Amino acid sequence: MTHRRTTDAGPPAAPPARLSYLVYRLERRLRARLDEALARHGVTTTEYMALSELRMGDGVSSAELARIAFVTPQAMNLVVRNLEQRGLIRRDPHPDGGRVLCARLTRKGLSALRRCDGLLDGIEEVMLAEVDDTTRKTLVEGLTVCARALRPDAPS
Fold this sequence. Notes:
Largest sheet: 3 strands, antiparallel
Mean pLDDT: 88
Radius of gyration: 22 Å
Shape: elongated
Number of helices: 6
Low-confidence stretches: none
Helix content: 55-70%
Strand content: 5-15%
């Protein structure tokens, strides 16, 4: 009987992590850090997202904010009411009339948003500490293209 000699190469190499998995894992870690940091200032991540969106363009409805923040319109209505009660936003009738109210950032809301931006700046600084400027720019551009490609209203 002949014995074959086999070399023990060890277990097969694991396949590289999928990009979508890495993005998900990063999002979960980033969200946890952001939730914790914002909570110390009495702001939720969803509230921060809504305030940030209003800074980019005033006059957004609760339904539009809900789509942007990936929450239900009912959940966003609660967020918007809370922000309004705290004086961080105000809501005005839509220029076209109807029942739609458009949210606008107040000075107090802008001040709170700037404090929260500082928290996110710190988190991003830690996250990107070992990433050079060229790679950062490429990362921003690549993620922007990917997000645009998967948006619900993108042509198929």
